[in-house]
Amino acid sequence: MDPEQLTLEGVPAPRARRRPRAATAAVAQTLPVARVCVDLPPAHLDRTFEYLVPATMSDDAVPGTRVKVRFGGQDADGYVLERVATAEHDGALVPLRRLVSPEPVLTPQVARLARAVADRWAGTLADVLRLAVPPRHARVEAEAQATEPALVPPPSPDATAWADYRGGSAFVQHVRGGGAPRAVWTALPGEVDERWPAAVAQAAAAAVLGGRGALVVLPDGRDVDRVLDALAAADVPRWSPGVRGGAVRLTAEEGPAARYRAFLAAVRGHADVVVGTRAAAFAPVHDLGLAVCWDDGDPLHAEPRAPYPHVREVLALRSDLEGAALLVGGHARTVEAQALVASGWARDVSADRARVRARTPRVQALTSTELAREGAAAAARLPTPAWRTIRDRLADGPVLVQVPRAGYLPAVACGRCRASARCTACHGPLGLHRADGSPTCAWCGRMATDWRCDECGASALRSVRVGSERTAEELGRAFPGVPVVVSGARAASGVVAQVPDRPALVVATPGAEPVAPAGYAAAVLLDAAVSTAGSALGVLPDAVRRWLTAAALVRPVGEGGVVLLVGDAEPRASQALVRWDPAGLAERELDERAVLGLPPSVRMASVTGTREAVTAVVQRVRAAPLPAPLDVLGPVPVAGAERGAFEPDVRTLLRVPRSAGAALATAVAASLGVRSARREGGTVRVQLDPSDLG
Fold first, then answer.
1. pTM of whole model > 0.85?
2. Among 51, 101, 379, 478, which residue has the fewest nearby CB atoms (within 10 Å)?
3. Number of helices and strands in the chain (H, E)
């Protein structure tokens, strides 16, 4: 017997239910059966269901439309995936309840991609379609165009931004000719008209010039605007109602109406290029010729909702399914992108060393060894060489200071014995939001107005971690009269997009660095040891990515650009920055992971939840037939998963060779389906190839 088969011996048979009768209303004469993906959360219902198409819906209920169906005694949402002549179900079929809209919002290409994504990450099709198709906005959908859309003239061919890269011009020409090349691109810093948005825009324009569409996915809205501006400079204007062609902005921050309008422009084929953030990876671009993922190491590209797909992998799947070109680019190189190059699946596109040295600033690492001659001043957070560099370079323009932490003092300790200051209610870490404020718990938010140390009884506090707000305050005192700009998600001014080319100190957290039109005169990267601390998988490439993103905004060495890395960072990471060699670091990391059996060299599934539920899921995966041995690591308690719980959550890791990755995903999905059908208790969270291993 199949080990996953439910045993029903001794269980009273349920009362027989009458099959639903077919509707007495007329049925469509042509293709009367609709196969529908019903929006149902249970994993064991991840399949299509057949319904009859009433004659009144025959013309409008086409594949891709939204419908209402009857399921389990209630109405449910769904998408028509296809229409067929005969049903596979032997019994009577229930008719479609209602046609929500005649607009086909789910194209066959996106439906096939969603199915592939669900299979790869052990999810359900309904979960992926919630990510792929935005909610309906009836008023926007009803907007009709009275006249035939005016055609946007094709862009002019231009690949000048790719001239400095080996294989860059050939890649653009191949895209323009209708080919499907795949490349991993290490971008150089440069002047305003030579930076990476211009290269992305020229590649997308080449796809449009070849008669195909392009899709560009970026981490945040600031990058989206920069690429749209570069596309306009490349003769690909922003799309507007009443025209056919151009580039459309597809982001969630636009609001429901604007987002759905942009989505409809893509699904109707009115926009040639779609530029957006994470969810835009599923945008229904007609005849996709090029898919671009910029800065694939940014955590914003990882979907936080089930089944937790990553933009880079989604676009790689889409490139295979639709025969489109793929470009994965960034100033840094992730280990996963390097694996694509090492396997031969993608080609490396980068500049030679001479061009790298000419286009990058001078980078110096101020470690404790380098600062030994400074004596006691070497222990300062802003040592004398860094202070001197800021003072000298401020005369030529703005200076960027990158701080790895936001806030004022995110962590404090006892001023006498230096024990960590903890909340008396939940034992969470205390921090300060301003100089004259009271310590506040980072977990429960309570204010510790009368805090005293449990070890020595002292009430004085000292800083352990310094955030961007405190750094800006210190720099303002050190450089009186110089404007100080703070950029960050938690800053009072929020994330600043651009700063003018005049003397100023710009304090920013990673990912929130504003752009200076002529480049920064210098950059100081503080607390380097903090960025490389920890045991999480990929901590070193992530740190180098954050540093390079900031350093790429600095003027080249020929114009006096200087970057200082302050602190005792991990030597491999600091040397990768000094040499400006992210690909070399990624290659070494990939080799080490192959030896240690870590992703992306292997496929791994993380099963987290209550111990009983995790054990049941893992046992069924163990019993499944796999083409390669299965390594089971754990279960181990998850630190901080449920503070105060009697029994904390546990995590088990399931590991197989890459060749058995699809079989592992299938086995995990089947186990979750059995769990759903049995209505097993507890909680379980499953993630394929997790990035938070530590």
1. yes
2. 379
3. 18, 28
